[in-house]
Fold:
Amino acid sequence: MEKTEIGYRPLITNLTDSIHDDVRSVRSRVREAIELLEQGRDTGTDAEKFDAAVANLRGVEQRLAGLAHR
Structure:
C-alpha cells in the first residue's frame, strides 16, 4: 500500500482566508449598526441607551479589527 502525503497547508490557508473574510463582514455590519443607532439617537429616544449601545459596538468593532490583523 502506497503512503499518500496530504497537503494541509492549502486547507489551512483557505480556512484562514475564510475566517478573515467573515471577520471583515462582521466588522462591516457592526459599523452599519453603529450608523443606524447614531441616526436613532436623533429621534429623541433615550440618548443614554443609544450612547451605551454605540460605545459597546465600537468596542466590538475594535476587537474585531485586532483579530483581523492576526
Observations:
- The CA atoms of residues 36 and 56 lie 14 Å apart.
- DSSP finds two helices and no strands in the chain.
- The radius of gyration is 20 Å.
